[in-house]
Amino acid sequence: MKFSLDCLHSWNLEPNQAVALQQSLRGRVRAEPFWDDVASIGGVDVGILNGMGRAAVVRLDYVSLQPLEVAVATEQISFPYIPGLLSFREMPVILKALEKLSGLPDVFIVDGHGIAHPRRFGIASHLGVILDKPTIGCAKSILVGSYQYLAEEVGSQADLVAEGEVVGVALRTRRGCKPVIVSVGHRVDLLSAVRLIMTTVRGYRLPEPCRLAHRFASRVSQHYDKDIKIK
Q1: What are the CA-CA distances from residue 22 to residues 29, 108, 120, 162, 213 (Å)?
Q2: Cβ distance 62 to 86 under 8 Å?
């Protein structure tokens, strides 16, 4: 799958330039109902060890959630760790992995935030705007905002509110585990995002696309399925 790594902007930016870019791009994010027929769904995650980033993109059949394709890429990470600027640290190696896919999924679930972000433009939104594809943020912790009571039953949700605005939901995907934080990335509204996450939960805290992407990105699952060729 070919596209330019600099298709939208340069990644060689100073932190203050990255913040300004997020502020300028946030207006491109669209939250809209997602009712299209979904054939495949993607999971995206990055693991970093000793300064090297390892990105994994997993494309799964939406009905069976069986992996169709896995692409992995590695790259030296040069951008510093700064909360709120994750996309500038991880996106170059994600795009490098995406280039190896034979085709893009219909929708992506990204391990990170969408608009549940100080400037409403987290890594899931950034990826969605670059690709102009539907994306959902599914994070393991809160970056901005707070929520009230959340029931223990799987599927329970509570609005995540920041500065008086609902920016996502805390979603219970497994009883006895902390919720995941779901937010709009791009071209998906919050209702559609929660629906898609819940249809891909298989008894774990993380939805299956993110769970598998995390395993491949962290090198745990290099031999997860011998029938799936890792590119």
Answers
A1: 11, 20, 8, 18, 25
A2: no
C-alpha–C-alpha distance, residues 19 and 117, integer Å: 12
Beta bridge partners, 76, equal 52
28-217 classified as CATH 3.30.70.1070: no
pLDDT band at 229 (very low <50, low <70, confident <90, very high): low
**Residue showing tokens 């996106």:** 91
User: What was the pLDDT predicted at 36?
Assistant: 74
Beta strands 67-76 and 107-110 are unpaired
CA dist., res. 19 & res. 167, Å (int):
19
Q: What is the mean pLDDT of residues 181-194?
A: 97
**CA atoms of 178 and 109, how far apart (whole Å):** 18
Note the pTM of the prediction, 2 decimals. Answer: 0.92
For CA atoms 112, 52, 55, 226, give the dihedral sign: negative
